[in-house]
Amino acid sequence: xxxxxxxxxxxxLESWKAREQNKVANEIAAPGADYVLPKISDGGCIxxxxxxxxxxxxxxxxHTAVWTGTEMIVxxxxxxxxxxxxxxxxxxxxxxxxWIVTSTANAPDARYSHTAVWTGTEMIxxxxxxxxxxxxxxxxxxxxxxxxxxx
Length: 151
Description:
extended
């Protein structure tokens, strides 16, 4: 009897898992962006090459990056030689292969090792450190290039 019960339980669990995965897949909608991958030249890829993009943010680590559906926003982090975190960043658009600097007006204090999430309309920054732990953050709207302080 234990074998039959275990087999039934396993089948029920697998059936439930399949239903939940289908439900989640159906609830997640693709971004409403008109982004199209850039065309790779007919000659194919050239091995071991890299082309830097102009106006990229300064080199950094312990920063955050979020994908909006059409662009990547990089913010904050620790810049070598800067003596601490930064409160700068940039928006990268792969369809134009270009960077736009993010506003620093009302931006959160400089920081690194913080967290960022994308809500669908804003990037929210929270926590991190700049020599001491921070319990502050901000909300960045890429359409208006503006920051709001979080409470």
